[in-house]
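I am still getting used to backbone structure tokens and would like to learn alongside you. Would you supply a protein for us yourself, any chain you care to pick? Start from the sequence, derive the backbone structure tokens from it, and show both lines together. Go ahead whenever you are ready, and we will take it from there.
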Amino acid sequence: MAAVTAEGRIARFQRILSPEATTRTAINPGSNLLLGVAVHGLARSSKGHTLTELEEAAVGPFRALADTDEEFASYAGIARQAKSTPQASDRIPSCIMNLVEDEPYTRERFRTDMALLQKSVVDQPHIRLVGPEQFKSGALDADEAFNSALARTGRGVTVHLGKRSNPQGESVGGTDEVHEPTNYRLRIYADRFKCHRASNEAGKDEVYWTMSSGADSGDKYVSRTHEFGSLREGDVRKFPSRGPNSYLFRGMLQNLVASTVTCWEADHSNSGWYDRLVRTLEATAVTSSQFTMYTGWKVADELIGLIPGADLANEVLFWIELISSLVSELLKIFKNEDDLIKQHDFAWNLGALEALFDNGAEASYMFDGGSGGKLQLWLSREIGPSDVENGFIEVVSAQAPAGGGRLPINWMAPKSKGVQLIEGLSGTAESTFSPYFCYRNPRTNQLMYSRGLGFEPKVHGSHMTIGRPALVPFGSGDTLHIAYTGLNGEIYHLTQGLRGWYSARVGTMTTGLAPGLCAAGNYIICFVWGEDDRFYYAYKKENLPLPWSDWIRIDNIQAVPQIPAISGADSGHVGWWWKTNDDRVCFARIPVEDLVEETREIRSFTAVQRTASSNITALVWAGIYLAAYRQDGTVHLLAYDGSPPIQNQNTGLKACGDPTLFKNRHLADTLYLLYPKTV
């Protein structure tokens, strides 16, 4: 059978949104809320509107699906037409289908709609919440209602949530204590599968698997296995041992990871179809990762340490079902007839990952495609603290080139440093010959410092922080400044004086993430991500005993939750790097006068088509604005030297956590890059 053409895909999307389609579905309309967000976003894009972060996240897979701009425009036109068809709301919730196209779909609307639709969605029989105590001998107990619904709908959703304990057996994280989670290194991989029933259709004896995942760390992973041929009942097939296409997920995790696993019959597939499939899965992995952060980051402490209550469990079930439904509808648009055996969507929190796979145990799941065959898949995992916590830090350095800096930077040979219990390392060497480092102890939340790596770390007074502290010198480096988020969510500023350190609160706003800090001109600037999903900044003159300004909201930047990455230049400019809702990295060079005049919009910025799965660290060095981040386990650099385009460099340095940049003016303006080393 020939691959589905663009005209065929457009016609299929039109049928999905047609009134007649409502009679062919066994799914509650609330399951299609994310599809509705995509339809609303597509309709808005056809009118030239700028999309919100949620609209862009939902529309992204359709951009990946389309081969041309004309095909994408056709999807947008169909969506706009469907919005004017009242019967379409029988398939998609009326709360979004009745929303006029001039109205953006925001996170506030999403929270309202979730409260309205949540119970009816999660009560469907193809969705189940499974605790570790229900998971015996690595296999789920028989669940006839779930299996029947799985056969009827063609897909299932299984969410595992469990309680987590620390090595001492005590509960981790109190209900009254807010803290930013530690990153954990996680690998979930497919070990083998068994054929319990072969396909009844002639010639259909070859299968392959696709797997896409997104974690709340921002890491994503997509893989497609080779084809397994000549399957017979009773056959057991092994996946390549730890091969790149055997992994569901390989990256960093904070609390949650969501995965879509699909089994396919291979008879009608070709290379072009495979390419489109992988593109679409990559886009849905981005959506999955973003929704994990959107819905989960404010309840992180419950997800880390407590058995979730009903409302929290339902929230996780709800958004996993939305992603599952969107993937299912996308596959209907371009899959070949009868190729799909079954789709199964999963989510695990840390407690479930530790309990379900305890001591190297496996977990198995059934993929029952009726006449298309029945297969059982076994999964295993490896999980542990990131090497940031273990304290294995590697350092590379580079000398400032004559005449200004350009990429690629030529790094000297790496040197290993053993530093214990570090999370969120910030460093500077501008004030002394010996660098000053500041970081968080992830087990105690204490603010720590040391004079150089490898030196005895010390507790920074009684200061406690939920995440990475920001550290900058001012001017010639005689004064050090630290900003951090306290356990109460408020931002605090520490200043180094003649008699020690002085502490002051920055404004009255609270946040769930760490701040960014820089010195530019005569000002200290602090950026934060606000609880209303916008960036804020505050400022103060460095050499005057004046309080900080109030927090000022930046209205025109759409982004995902993140720690701000800012750096200051002697010229009085602030360099700001941020991750957008469609996984680009953007850069703005802002005169400090604009910030002091309390501008609420960034007038111009440059975007680069590069993704950043980790937090970004920023620095001005040798006349250029640098950013470092981790992508797919490797440290990448971006550089802006005053004119587009932004340069990029894959350093090839393997890391398992956030990198850090700092420089030493006393040593020929030497640049240092520190990163936790992958074992």
About this structure: Confidence is low (pLDDT under 50) at residues 166-181, 294-310, 387-391, 429-433.
